[in-house]
Design brief:
InterPro entries: ADP_ATP_car_bac_type, MFS_trans_sf. This is ADP,ATP carrier protein. One of its GO terms (molecular function) is ATP:ADP antiporter activity. It is found in: Membrane; Plastid, Chloroplast membrane. It is a multi-pass membrane protein. With 336 residues, the chain is mostly helical. It has a domain of 230 residues: MFS general substrate transporter like domains (Growth Hormone, Chain: A), CATH 1.20.1250.20. It contains ten helices and no strands. The protein starts with 10 loop residues before the first helix and ends in a 6-residue tail after the last helix.
């Protein structure tokens, strides 16, 4: 489409108008579907009232997080992911704008990036059940930080030490900056796909073995403190680095070091949480096995003789034989 535009025509303006037209049309379609569902689709009536979540303030949430090691490790996972993905994504997009200064090229690359993210996420969704069944909760919880660690090392290494490798990349028609952009794209694609397919299910599964009070309060505390802290923590770190070193480019080495520390803390919390989670699950399974193995003792009504035997002697010796032996064997009550 852009190749067929005449001279002097802004391709980005044409693309922007087309995208905004699609957004408006889809927005109107959503409004129409919402109106139709509310007017013509009968909704099931709910007889049971929904349980209200406990309203916990910031200080109450912090106290609860400090008091429980299990919830504290789970909170570390949530905060570490939020800060890590923020640090990586902002640094990568700054290099992406340097590589693709044209808005059309930038939007084209981001379209391919979104497509690749969707394909990778769908594939990981299919593989996640197999990973949980074969390797367990602990391995699944460690995949996301491991992916961030490996791709993060490659991304920041290309940014900081990519110049000596320029002749090697030139043989493949690339520059160190373009290679860093591709590695950063892989990092964001795999980390986001692992987050949706493994990290989020692991986080929700971690609440299962907890008692009801800890489960509800822990989830509320993480929603109040950890989710906002994870989202804003990365931005605060970057603002501090920019004010200290003057620009994002100058602070890149330090951001890489901070990312390394956060991901290692994330892996440590995942390992600790895996030990506690496995122990709680084993205790839960043991309790279920004991409940299944428990046998209720039947109440045996007393006979006329008052001996409480299950059946009379002749019924136990229908063939005949020594009646005295048979009566002596059956007269003794059985232990049940």
């Amino acid at each position: 489409m852009r190749k067929n535009l005449g001279p002097g025509v802004d391709g980005w303006a044409v693309s922007l108008k087309a995208m905004m037209t699609i957004v408006v049309v889809m927005g109107l379609a959503i409004c129409g579907l919402y109106w139709w569902v509310n007017n013509y689709v009968p909704l099931p009536s709910r007889s049971k009232k929904k349980k209200e979540k406990p309203k916990m303030g910031t200080m109450e949430s912090l106290k609860f997080l400090v008091s429980s090691r299990y919830i504290r490790d789970l909170a570390t996972l949530v905060v570490a992911y939020g800060i890590s993905i923020n640090l990586v994504e902002v640094t990568w997009k700054s290099k992406l704008k340097a590589q693709f200064p044209s808005p059309n090229e930038y939007s084209s690359f981001m379209g391919d990036f979104s497509t690749a993210t969707g394909i990778a996420t769908f594939t990981m969704m299919l593989l996640s059940q197999w990973i949980f069944n074969k390797y367990g909760w602990g391995a699944a919880a460690k995949i996301t930080p491991t992916v961030l660690l490996l791709t993060g090392v490659g991304f920041f290494s290309l940014i900081l030490f990519g110049d000596p490798l320029a002749p090697t990349f030139a043989k493949f028609g690339m520059t160190p900056l373009l290679a860093a952009v591709f590695v950063g794209a892989m990092q964001n694609i795999f980390s986001k796909s692992a987050k949706y397919s493994l990290f989020d299910p692991c986080k929700e599964m971690a609440y299962i073995p907890l008692d009801e009070e800890t489960k509800v309060k822990g989830k509320a505390a993480i929603d109040v403190v950890c989710n906002p802290l994870g989202k804003s923590g990365g931005a605060l770190i970057q603002q501090f680095m920019i004010l200290t070193f003057g620009s994002l480019a100058n602070s890149t080495p330090y951001l890489g070091g901070i990312l390394l520390v956060i991901v290692l803390a994330w892996l440590g919390a995942a390992r600790s949480l895996d030990t506690q989670f496995t122990k709680l699950r084993q205790e839960e399974e043991l309790e279920k096995e004991m409940e299944r193995a428990a046998v209720k003792i039947p109440v045996v009504p007393e006979t006329e003789g008052g001996n409480g035997s299950l059946v009379g002697g002749p019924a136990l010796n229908p063939i005949g034989g020594d009646s005295q032996t048979g009566s002596s064997e059956t007269s003794t009550p059985r232990n049940i």
